[in-house]
Amino acid sequence: MRAPSTDRTTVRRWCLRHLQLLPVILLVGGAFLDYHTSPHFSGEAFYTAAPMTAAALLSLRATILAAIGACVADFALLSHFGFVGNSGGRSELAAVATVSALAIVVNRLMYYSKVRLESARRVALAVQRAVLPQLPASLGPLRIAVRYQAAVKDAQIGGDLYGAQDTPYGVRCLVGDVRGKGMEAVKVVTVAMGVFREAAEEEATLAGIAARLERALVRERDRRAGPERTEGFVTGVLVEIPHGGDELRLVNRGHPAPLLLHAGRVHSAEPSEPALPWGLAELGTDQDRADTVPFPPGATLLLYTDGLTEARNRAGDFYDPGAGLTGVEFPGPDALLATLLTEVSDHTDGRITDDMALLAVTRDKGRAQEPA
Known about the structure:
Mean pLDDT: 85
Radius of gyration: 29 Å
Low-confidence stretches: 1-5, 368-372
Helix content: 40-55%
Distance between the termini: 47 Å
Structural class: alpha+beta
C-alpha cells in the first residue's frame, strides 16, 4: 500500500540531489541547440535561465561562473554566425549580461534572507526548548518518547503542547492542542505548561490539576481583545500513572482519545463521558471525571494531537493510527513514534498541514514501579 508513495519520495530525493546540475545543462543544451540549428535561432532563453537557476540553487561563486559562462557562450555563438557586430546581436548580448548581473544580485539577496531565516529558526527552537523541553528517556520503570512537528516547518513550534514529570502521586503527563496558530497560540502554550508543571507537583488529583488549568486559561482568554477573547480554548488529556499497580487514570477535555497498545492489540481509551475543552467549562458541568484503565507491564500509552488523525492523503482519506499499529509490536516508545511519523509522511506525501505532538509511555515488563 505504501509502495507508490515511497517511490515518489525516492524520485523526489533523486531530483533534488541532481537539481544543482541544471545550470550546466541549460548552458550546454542552449549552446548545442544554438550551434546546430538555423543561424536565426537564438539560445538566449537558455543563457539567461542558467545564471538565474544558479542564483536560486548554488553559491555566489557558482552563480558568477554561470553568468560568465552564459555571456561567453552567447558571445561565441554570435561571433560564429557573424551577428556580434549588428544591433540585434549587441542587444541579445546586453540582455544576457544584464540578466547575469541580476542573477548575482538575486543570489546575494537570497543568501541574506536565508541568514535571517536561520536566525529566526534558532530563536524559535530556543523558545520551543524553553516552553516544551526535551523529556527524560525514562521515569522509573516507564520509558518515554516525544515528537513534535509544526505544520509550518521553519517555525519549529506551534499550538500543540506536551509534558511529563514524576510527582509524589505518580508520573503525570499532559498533551494538548491550543485553538489557533502563531504567537497567540504560543502564549497559551506557555501559560498551560507553567500551570501544569506546578499543579502536577501540588494537586492530589487530576481534577485539581484540570481546575487550575481551567482558571489560568480563562484568565488568559479574558485578557485578549477581539474575537479571540470568546473563541480561545484548549483541548487536552491529563494522565496519571500511579507508583505501583497496573492502572492509569485519564481526564479528557475534548481531545482525541489516547491509544493503548499491548501484545499487538490497540485499544482506544475513550472517556466515559464527553467533556468540554479548557476555557469553556462554564458552558457545562462535571468536566473532570477521571477514568481508570488497565496499564499492564509491556503496554504503551500513545497520546497525540489531531494533527495525526486529520492527516490526509491526496484522495482526502484521514490517517488511521489504530489500523496501522494493530498487530505490530514495538521494542519501545521511540520505535513506535518513528514508525508513526514515517507512515504519516508516506500517507500525506510529506504534506503536513497541522501541528502534531506525539507522546508515548511504555511500562517495562521486567520491573515493578515502587512507591515514591
